[in-house]
Amino acid sequence: MRSPPASCSEPRKDPMDIEQVVARAAAASRPFAQTAPRERAAALVAAADALDANAGELIDIAMRETGLGEPRLVGELRRTSNQLRLFAEVIVDGAYLDARIDDADPDYVIGPRPDVRRVLQPVGPVLNFAASNFPFAFSVAGGDSAAALAAGCPVIVKAHSGHPELSARTAGIVAGALAGAGLPDGVFQLISGQAHGVEALRDDRIRAAAFTGSTHIGTMLARIAAERPRPIPFYGELGSVNPVYVTAGAAAREQDLAAGFLGSVTGSAGQLCTKPGFLFVPAGTELDLEAAAAVAEHRLLTPGIGDAFARRRDEVSETDGVTVLSQGTVRVDDAGHANVTPVIARTDLATLLAERDRLLEESFGPLAIVVEYPDAAALPAIHRELFPGNLTSTVHAAAGDDIDALVEALAETSGRVLFGGWPTGVSVTSAMQHGGPFPATTTDATSVGTAAITRFLRGVAYQGAPQELLPPPLRDDNPWGVPQRRSPAGLSQKWGALTGAH
């Protein structure tokens, strides 16, 4: 669970006019969509360079507003700027457009075929609700903004209340770089306040929205997006407990398991959407988790997150059948921020099943539960029952362990399945999937990696269109030089030949 944006009932504290903000984005939509790939890519690289050039200032602000450490923030900002550069490469490559050309074919076996050409085009203005726990990588210039800009969509970012100064400064740097690269006015804008975010979400000119945050706020916003007169896609990342399963063969590596588990649970004070919330081990497995008591306290991102963490600590520790291995501490400072140490609990599978309403809720912060199970054969069914939607699921197994059924269950319910290792640390790659079935996300798509761009594109087919009216990726002269999948006339006569059936 992440800290929600400010309450919908808060008074407006600034004079921003959402009508004007959305109007600027709408006016920029068509000219931005028509920018050549290299022009748009150059603008993303300019934004990345500007972020790097101002890294010292941005990291200082982020440390003060979030309480996160300098090494973590340095790495996160590097990830953010290089993510923009990666999307620039995707744009120039052009394969993401999925350009398809079917030449006219009077002898097409299903009946005469007209000239049909299909390409992915930008959906239009995108509203991005920034997250608290990644003040760079999932915030103003983070993955959702990068993907939408790469797709050719103007972006309006609703800043998170947990780091307002950083949001404003980052937006200024990015907007300035994009404008300096020649992109249209209105391509990148920042708004703040929950009321403003909801107002923008309801505006008919917004064509898609992205969100990372709490399940409560995410489902509320998803409902608004779905109930508009013209519903729009809402890509909400909500929450995940990311179970980890250890087989009897792997349980022998107790020392490595304990160290890896604690490192993954306590990194960034457990304020990561991929933090492992449950570790399943064979009954009788002894893990040395005493090191949790020696972990230094860490400030949580917002007072709201601190309150929720303290509540979850009490709920878990006071549940019958739960043994607390590391009680953890919660110290509230003068600014209202909670400074905490890890909470590690242990229980058995029967208790988890009986107390699922108390124990299964995501605990945002350094809290996790070790669960002893009696029979590995029951794990696939248990997983499907308790964890129907996850960002990640992990299995630690030894050579020769029979885990086929478990892996099948994990793949059905999770966006990423790990074999060994730990789920925290999401690499930005072309093959990454950071999403999963509900309740992990409202729409099962990825918000990390180059496939994230497809959320902000829609297919359009042109039939019998003159060359001069076709989008550049579909023209015969292919001025953008993008890959084109072409089906020439006469090809249908050979269907089935490659199967060897004839």
Count of strand segments: 19
Number of domains: 2
How helix-rich are the residues, as a percent range?
25-40%
How far apart lie the N and C ends?
Answer: 57 Å
Globally, the shape reads: globular
- CATH C-level class of the largest domain is Alpha Beta
Radius of gyration from the alpha-carbon trace, in angstroms = 25 Å
Largest sheet, described in full?
Answer: 7 strands, mixed
- Oligomer class: single chain
Please report the number of helical segments.
14
Task: Write a brief caption for the model.
Helices cover 34% and strands 18% of the residues. With 502 residues, it is of the alpha/beta class. The strands form four sheets. A seven-stranded mixed beta sheet has the order 11-14-15-9-8-16-17. Strands 5-4-3-6-7 form a five-stranded parallel beta sheet, sandwiched between helices.
How do the helices and strands line up, and which of them pair or pack?
Elements: H1 18-33, H2 37-53, H3 55-66, H4 70-93, E1 99-102, E2 116-122, E3 126-129, H5 143-151, E4 155-158, H6 164-180, E5 188-191, H7 194-202, E6 208-212, H8 215-227, E7 234-237, E8 244-246, H9 254-266, E9 278-282, E10 298-299, H10 303-317, E11 323-326, E12 330-332, E13 338-340, E14 343-348, H11 349-354, H12 356-359, E15 367-373, H13 379-386, E16 390-396, H14 404-413, E17 414-419, E18 457-463, E19 484-487
Parallel strand pairs: 1-19, 3-4, 3-6, 4-5, 6-7, 8-9, 8-16, 9-15, 14-15, 16-17
Antiparallel strand pairs: 1-2, 2-18, 10-13, 11-14, 12-13
Describe the structure.
This protein has 502 residues and is an alpha/beta fold. The protein folds into 2 domains: 22-238 and 447-456, 3-Layer(aba) Sandwich (Aldehyde Dehydrogenase, Chain A, domain 1), CATH 3.40.605.10; 244-419, 3-Layer(aba) Sandwich (Aldehyde Dehydrogenase, Chain A, domain 2), CATH 3.40.309.10. The chain is built from 14 helices and 19 strands. The protein has helices at 18-33, 37-53, 55-66, 70-93, 143-151, 164-180, 194-202, 215-227, 254-266, 303-317, 349-354, 356-359, 379-386, 404-413; strands at residues 99-102, 116-122, 126-129, 155-158, 188-191, 208-212, 234-237, 244-246, 278-282, 298-299, 323-326, 330-332, 338-340, 343-348, 367-373, 390-396, 414-419, 457-463, 484-487. The strands form 4 sheets. Strands 11-14-15-9-8-16-17 form a 7-stranded mixed β-sheet. It has a 5-stranded parallel β-sheet with strand order 5-4-3-6-7, with helices on both faces. A 4-stranded mixed β-sheet has the order 18-2-1-19, with no helix packed on it. Helix 5 (143-151) links the parallel strand 3 and strand 4. It is globular, with a radius of gyration of 25 Å.
